[in-house]
Amino acid sequence: MLQGPYGSVDRDRPLIRLSFTSFAVGTVLLPLTGLIACISISLMYHFEDSTYTHCQVSNYLPSISAAIGRVPERYVWRCCIGLHSAPRYLVAVAYFNFYRGRFTKRLPELLLSGVALLSSLAENTGLLLLTYVSSTETYNVHKYGFIVFIASSLVHMLVTCRLWQVIRRYSVNPEEMRSYLWKLRLFLFNGACCAAAYYFFRRHNKYCESGVYTLFALCEYLVVFSNMAFHMTAFWDFGSKEVIVATPPEDKRY
């Protein structure tokens, strides 16, 4: 019996098969390289425009909103965030299923798992909103997208640390211990950077001191970089797993 080039054996094979570590690294590298590229282009070609503020004092670094709000930076950032957003939604659901498996009979942790899922989805949606509506187009929408991103990010980190604190009590896996400790450190660092960024932003607007907005921009970078590093801890959580895209198997008739 002859078979065509797409026989049942070939059809049942996965279309795409990636280790989760490669998947996690690729997902994080997209916004990381995009942000570094946007900041670099702004400093080299749009320094005066990107570092200008209403105070008209010396400033040496652009805020993230300024760095991603001009052309071609805007398109570089939108491309990177657009490509990375679908895997982020997928990872949010993967974590929810992971927690459900771990906390089958623990109602408080199951509820927190739902909060972690919702906050992760809100974080990614807020990031998309602030990305595709720049501060130079519709400032209020961009601002609210940024607020949703930061607030949901902090909630997600806090709930995740709590869930992993419970996991640590009943686990002897060294990778799970390492994952929890790094999650906790990065959450505390991220919270401290958020507080510092808020302080420098308010101080700049109130006193218009030279260089203060630069400190705000630097803290803003650290907030985003630590957020990326926090999500990168999925490298340990799903290190032995694979991401597979496949066609559903056909029913076989005998």
The count of β-strands is 2
Largest sheet: 2 strands, antiparallel
Mean pLDDT: 89
Q: Determine the oligomeric state from the structure.
A: single chain
Tally of DSSP helical segments: 10
* Terminal Cα span: 15 Å
How would you describe this structure to a colleague?
The longest helix has 34 residues, at 174-207. This protein is globular. With 254 residues, the protein is mostly helical. The chain has a two-stranded antiparallel sheet with strand order 1-2. It is built from 10 helices and 2 strands.
Short description:
By secondary structure, the protein is mostly helical. It has 10 helices and 2 strands, in the order αβαααααααααβ.
Keywords:
10 helices, 254 residues, disordered N terminus, 73% helix
Blueprint of the fold:
Elements (H helix, E strand, L loop, with lengths): L7 H5 L3 E4 H26 L1 H4 L13 H4 L5 H30 L4 H26 L6 H31 L4 H34 L4 H21 L1 H4 L4 E4 L9
Antiparallel strand pairs: 1-2
Helix pairs in contact: 2-5, 2-9, 5-6, 6-7, 7-8, 8-9
